[in-house]
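How a chain folds remains the central question behind the approach discussed here. In the encoding step, the backbone of a single protein was reduced to a row of integers, each denoting a local shape. We regard such an encoding as a compact summary of how the chain folds. The sequence in question and its structure tokens are set out directly beneath this paragraph:

___
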Amino acid sequence: MGRFGNAASLEDIAREAGCSEGAVELYTSRCFQAIEALHDVFVRPLTDEEKEAEKQWMDEHMGFVGEWRDGFVMYDGTIVVLFSRPGKDGDAYFTRKSNYGLNVQIGNTPSNLRIIDYSHGFTGSIHDAAAFEHTAAAKYPDWFFKDNEFAWCDSAYTLNGRTITVHRKPASLIRENRIFDAAVSHVRVRSEHCMGALKGRFQCLRGLRVTINSQQEHKNACRWITIAIILHNLVIDVEGAAAGAHFVGDHGHVQENEDRAIPDGQGVEQNNEDAGRQKRQRLINELMAYREGI
């Protein structure tokens, strides 16, 4: 899973391991089965104590205690690029970056980059906002969030009471909104760090060498993503947050921009944004009051 490009070939792995190519596939499948059995142990909602730790991280990062602390999780989408065009419905996998891939939605905590929610299975042509609707946070918000809790998202997502986004133009040109957006970006960079840690450690996700010519092979490709997410959290639990973020630099901002399917600022508009606008305005007021009081 740590191989990328031509080095990920079955022939190379079999030669180094001293076994047949069929044995490599069999051993991989059996290891995947064992790791999948640990899914609910390592990929789970946060406990109340863990949520409080994330909220304290937000307090320290912002420099004040307020409603900002309720944003304990952040979401972003990424593309797991495929090494070749799928034979089945290949055009559906085509992205604006002129590659083929799978859309993955990741919800992670800022302090240690732990992934607590995700969704995958959609092809690279889908919009992030549409793919996000299949995460636990979108499908079961009253279960995932408590009281005034919410998630931070970029402008490609829909603004509501549970997902707070940065502004789109022309609202982003207003001074107060620009300051707010910059503050949110400083928090949401941890989402980019999470993507970098995941793809940097498991470089198979930078060019997944899985042939997709059927629905079952599509599911097999998604399986690789699930395994990487489980192992990412396992490393954090066993070795700590520093180890989890060790590979952040191996897949940085430039590489992530090459993978991304949807640019910021092209979200899907909906009519139920009043609660989100009101909450975002309270967050802006809170931030400006703190800045003016410094």
Remarks:
- The radius of gyration is 20 Å.
- The longest helix spans residues 175-201.
